[in-house]
Each structure stands twice: as structure tokens, then as C-alpha cells.
Amino acid sequence: MTNYGIKEKILCIAAHPDDTEIMAASEICRAYTNEDIEFFACITTDGGNADVRNAEQREAAEIGKYTDLFLLGYSSNEIKGNSEQRIVNNYGDIIKDYINVINKIKPTTIITHNPFDTHATHKAVFNKVVEAIKSMPEELRPEMLFGGEVWGSIMNSEQRTVNSCGLEIIEKEITNTALYKKLLSCFPSQTKIIEEFSGKTVSNYLDMTEYML
Ligand SMILES: [Zn+2]
Q1: How many A from CA of 159 to the centre of ligand 1?
Q2: Tens of pLDDT along the chain (213 residues)?
Q3: Quick one: CA torsion of 78, 79, 81, 84, rounded to 10 degrees?
Q4: Contact between 135 and 99 (Cβ < 8 Å)
Q5: How far, in Å, from the CA of 8 to the mean position of ligand 1?
Q6: Distance CA 137, CA 5 (A)
Q7: Domain containing residue 23: CATH number
Q8: Residue 206, in any domain of the structure
Q9: Distance 17 CA to ligand 1 centre (A)
Q10: The domain containing residue 166 runs over which residues?
Q11: How many domains does the structure of the chain reveal?
């Protein structure tokens, strides 16, 4: 159902600083030039290097004109840990935090990771976002939930089988390439890691995302 007269509010719930700028780039670009669309980001972990990575994420939010940014600051283990760790690390708090953010924003659309992502933390975030949404009364849930892809195209691999699960695959266009490049240039710490890993010089983050494919 379309809420006529109500702003479109898009919330991206991501595992790490930088995931949002890759998997929700099309929506950041749409919101950037349209005052009827608000874009919010909620980042679950600090990427294990809070000072640097949160600062990088804040810069991207500033450049992309996000309406608000939520940095939850969990560790990856707290998100994907076994059941024992979940109890130790207040597993339920993550779900509660997601519900609080969703209640505060009342997004019309949520974008998060997709269940076919091969990264354990991404997958764990997807599961918890679904759990959070399912625990909310129906009238407070977002109209749409999208699973985004960080590693490349969901169409590139065995993940194609998603079609047989009845999920719809849509590729959304990034309409402002200059903005997209600017957003990705906010994460030099990640460029450095990929250089060490690949032994190649990476001139910008776009090169880096190509290495990931
Ligand atoms: Zn990630």
C-alpha cells in the first residue's frame, strides 16, 4: 500500500561500515536529489577498528546526506556467535536495537543483506533483521524488505537458484556515479587491506569491489 503524502523512508541495516555504500548505492543516489526520500543507515558492527571505521562511515553519511546514521558498535562474534556466545553477548539486545531503530524511523523500505550472502556476519545480520521485523506488530512493519548484495551481482553465481524460492531479483541502477565514487573513497582503511591481501595497488575503492567479484 502506498502512503500518499508520506515521505519515502529507506533504512539500510548493514553488518559493517562500507556495506551500505555498496549495496544501497542506488537508493542513496535517489534520496540525494529528492527531498521526498529520506535515507538512513544502521551499521551493526564497528568492523573491529571502531575509531577508524566509524569515522569513515560518518564521513560517507555526511557526503551522501543521510538523514541519520546509527552505529550500534557490536563485534562480529556477537552477531554470528554460537548460542553460548549469544547469551554472554546479550544476543537479544541486537534484535531490540534493530526494533528501536525501526520504530524511531518507521521506514517504508528496509534494505539489508541477502540470505545467500557467503559472508557469515552479513548472513547473521539478515537473519536478525528478519527476526526483528517478524516480532513487530504487522502495522509497524516496513512495506518492503530488500536483500542487497555486497560482493557483486546476485546473478553471478549459484545464487541464481533464489528464483525457485519465489524471490524476485531486481538490479537497481546507480544514477549518480560521481557520488558513488565519492562515497566509496571514504573508506581508505579497506583499500589498504585489499592491497595487502592482493599485493596490487588499488587506486580507488571501485577497483577493490572489482577484486571481490
Ligand atoms: Zn560487510
Answers
A1: 18
A2: 455 556 899 999 999 999 999 999 999 999 999 999 999 999 999 988 899 999 999 999 999 999 999 999 988 888 876 555 554 455 568 899 999 999 999 999 999 998 888 888 999 999 999 999 999 999 999 999 999 988 766 555 555 555 555 667 777 888 999 999 899 889 988 877 767 766 766 665 655 555 544
A3: 60
A4: yes
A5: 25
A6: 23
A7: 3.40.50.10320
A8: no
A9: 7
A10: 8-186
A11: 1
